[in-house]
Amino acid sequence: MKFSRICKDIYQQIGRLILTFSLTLFACTTQATQILLINPDQPGRPFWDLTTEVAKAAANNLNIKLDVKYGGGDRFANHKLISNISTKYDYVIFMPHRGKAAASFEQLTDKGVHFITLERAIDKTEFKQVGKPQEKYPLWLAEVYYDDWQAGKLLGSALLKQSKNHGELQPNILAFNGDHSSLSEQRADGLITSANQYQAQIKQVFYTFWNPTIAKQQIRKAIQRYPNSNVIWAASDQIAIAISQELKLLATDKNWIIGGIDWSIDAIEAVKKQRISATVGGHFMQAAWAIIMAYDHSMGLDVGHSQAAMPLSHQLITQDNAKHFHSLWQSKIWHCINFKQFSLALNRNQTYYQFDFERLVTSNTANGCL
């Protein structure tokens, strides 16, 4: 009898342990992953607003709790957000700023928070300093970035092709870049490549510091200095549209070929109405792709191999296809998208990330999302 009671007690203890383990396992598997996305700009900026909206849709689709904080377009304010990050977050997704990358990485490492970075806006010296993901900083899981050289070249080639089609004997380009960041310089290098291919001249590269007001002031002086210019390449849609508006006020009778980068709703509308000729974009998907990678890591996958898929490529919108893209800015469509199709954890037959905008459009057109 005594032996029987001992066995009964043991079985009860084992049962309690199994129940405790099961409840703990259930809690771990059902608790939503928490991610902080730092939008480097302020609310109301078209590109980053869309980037954030799509990221929210991806997080919702994957049952991820996503918080968003805004850096206000200031690198010091962005870095302060990193400094004050709560350790409650499993992952942080953010864009490192010039001169602050290493410090941000160190602080996140000290807090024990995994992170994925967006874009490549830091200079070559900092690239060497921080190295590659999962090397010097093991918690730096991956980076998601698009090919800015390809964006600059794609836009330049599209504008120069249209210039040739319009019968321009010699395309003369006025280039309006952003700032002196790696991102801006790579876009300008892409333009130089396309200009060489089309035997076009770049009369001058102006630095707008992403400020439309500065761009308007610069275009007034530029057309006086270079009266034979006929092509305007802009590193952002906002700059391209500002210049287009200023040229309209100046009432020039020239047939300007103008284009920008970002796929903003205003730019797509301007292309449709033939106020500008082209816009290059698709990189607003970057935060959503990063969320998918964070999800896969939370499911036990090593996402370090994702670097083989980088950099990602931009796409072109012209008057030929602009009507198909206007719905991008309707937030309801993004919550209809199946982002799970891009997860390696949920699609074990896939061996590498296929972050392709064309694939997203094709696979979601049939169900009425796009």
UniProtKB/TrEMBL annotation:
Keywords: Signal. InterPro entries: Peripla_BP_I, SBP_2_dom. Coiled coil: none annotated. Transmembrane segments: none annotated. GO terms for biological process: transmembrane transport. GO terms for molecular function: carbohydrate binding. CDD domains: PBP1_ABC_sugar_binding-like. PANTHER family: ABC TRANSPORTER SUGAR-BINDING PROTEIN (PTHR46847:SF2), D-ALLOSE-BINDING PERIPLASMIC PROTEIN-RELATED (PTHR46847). This is Periplasmic binding protein domain-containing protein.
